[in-house]
């Protein structure tokens, strides 16, 4: 594999797979990669610049916001908005939709989680950025509104995430498989490092926050007990891995096989994670890699969204593992 393929070059090659492509999707994916470089620049030296700790505000989710959440949000909105390729945006950190500073011509919608894994920011554990891209439903960018943001995950034209970890990796799909690029700071480029990622049909890891045990429903507890039983034939017991950053837990399981579950709980009756800028983009990637993503009953990509910040239970990862988890969730086991 030629390691000197930049992500920009890859975007252009992918564009050739679509005879109707105008190059605009390539340009806006380029903008996303550029914004990731800007966020990375601060994340890797977060302790040296004043972006650790609380911002002192609360977001629409009722969560206390970290300085880095706001920093990443602002960087992404400005870095991407200035080119006018997006007609409308939606972010975890903004209650309403965002009209880019310049939006004469954009025919795309960008939904994003600027900084995922906020609880891990101050302790140097991997965090990430997650993004989801749709086409406008109409053809006049000036008329873009919330309805353009509330499309089923199936309608995504591209999605991906960036992990700011021991290395910085950007993973994306525009419907032609899943590809990962590692950032090389010596040349400032994302270079192809994981071509055509496919996820194993069955894994050996499970990622569930067992700390909230008393919040879990019996169906989830029964599933966890099942994973912990001794049974060589089915590869049990599974090992538990829970970083607490969705993007990092998802990425590990994508590469090695495994399942991430954030179920409906007594505290979060609709789950904790957000459909539009966490579950949908990762479900798009997961399915492109041969995995499965549901809310325990329904395919994530088929869910008809009603609100920008709506939550959903999430069962995502290796197909066989998710199917078994669904059987427990539905009381069939
Ligand atoms: O602490 P909990 O309840 O396990 O929740 C952890 C989950 O919450 C999140 O931090 C939510 O995302 P944000 O950090 O973007 O708000 C996920 O990354 C993670 O999987
Ligand atoms: Mg998040
Ligand atoms: Mg976030």
Automatic annotation (TrEMBL):
Residues that hold Mg(2+) 1 according to the record: 92, 113, 115
Locations listed in the record: Cytoplasm
Endpoints of the signal sequence: none
Domain Fructose-1-6-bisphosphatase class 1 C-terminal: 200-328
List of residues binding Mg(2+) 2: 113, 116, 278
GO molecular function annotations of the record: fructose 1,6-bisphosphate 1-phosphatase activity; magnesium ion binding
Cofactor: binding details: Binds 2 magnesium ions per subunit.
Binding locations of substrate: 116-119, 209, 242, 272
Record-level GO cellular component terms: cytosol
Catalytic activity: beta-D-fructose 1,6-bisphosphate + H2O = beta-D-fructose 6-phosphate + phosphate
Cofactors that this protein relies on: Mg(2+)
UniProt keywords, alphabetically: Calvin cycle, Carbohydrate metabolism, Cytoplasm, Hydrolase, Magnesium, Metal-binding
E.C. number(s) listed in UniProt: 3.1.3.11
BP term (GO), one: fructose 6-phosphate metabolic process
Enzyme category, top tier: hydrolase
One Pfam assignment: FBPase_C
Pathway where it operates: Carbohydrate biosynthesis
InterPro entries recorded: FBPase_C_dom, FBPase_class-1, FBPase_N, FBPtase
Domain Fructose-1-6-bisphosphatase class I N-terminal, residue spans: 5-195
Keyword Iron-sulfur: no
Record-stated family: Belongs to the FBPase class 1 family.
Binding partners and assembly: Homotetramer.
Official protein name in the record: Fructose-1,6-bisphosphatase class 1
Taxonomic source organism: Prosthecochloris marina
Gene encoding the protein: fbp
């Amino acid at each position: 594999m030629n390691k000197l393929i930049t992500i920009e070059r890859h975007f252009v090659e992918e564009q050739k797979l679509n005879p109707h492509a105008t190059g605009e999707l390539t340009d806006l994916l380029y903008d996303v990669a550029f914004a990731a470089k800007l966020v990375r620049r601060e994340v890797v030296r977060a302790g040296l610049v004043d972006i650790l700790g609380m911002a002192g505000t609360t977001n629409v989710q009722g969560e206390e916001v970290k300085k880095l959440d706001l920093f990443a949000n602002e960087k992404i909105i400005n870095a991407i908005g200035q080119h006018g390729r997006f007609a409308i945006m939606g972010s975890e950190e903004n209650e309403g939709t965002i009209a880019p500073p310049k939006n004469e011509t954009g025919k795309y919608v960008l939904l994003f989680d600027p900084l995922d894994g906020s609880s891990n920011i101050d302790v140097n554990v991997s965090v990430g950025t997650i993004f989801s891209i749709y086409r406008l439903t109409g053809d006049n960018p000036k008329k873009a509104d919330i309805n353009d943001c509330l499309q089923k995950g199936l309608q995504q034209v591209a999605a991906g995430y960036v992990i700011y970890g021991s290395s910085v990796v950007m993973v994306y799909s525009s419907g032609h498989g899943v590809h990962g690029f590692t950032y090389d700071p010596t040349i400032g480029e994302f270079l192809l490092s994981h071509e055509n990622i496919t996820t194993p049909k069955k894994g050996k890891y499970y990622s569930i926050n067992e700390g909230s045990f008393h919040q879990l429903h019996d169906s989830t507890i029964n599933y966890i007990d099942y994973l912990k039983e001794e049974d060589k034939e089915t590869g049990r017991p599974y090992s538990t891995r829970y970083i607490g950053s969705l993007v990092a837990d998802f990425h590990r399981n994508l590469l090695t096989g495994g399942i991430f579950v954030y179920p409906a709980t007594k505290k979060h009756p609709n789950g904790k994670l957000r459909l539009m800028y966490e579950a949908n983009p990762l479900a798009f990637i997961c399915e492109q890699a041969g995995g499965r993503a549901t809310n325990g009953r329904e395919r994530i990509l088929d869910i008809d969204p009603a609100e920008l910040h709506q939550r959903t239970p999430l069962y995502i990862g290796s197909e066989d593992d998710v199917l078994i988890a669904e059987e427990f969730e539905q009381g069939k086991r």
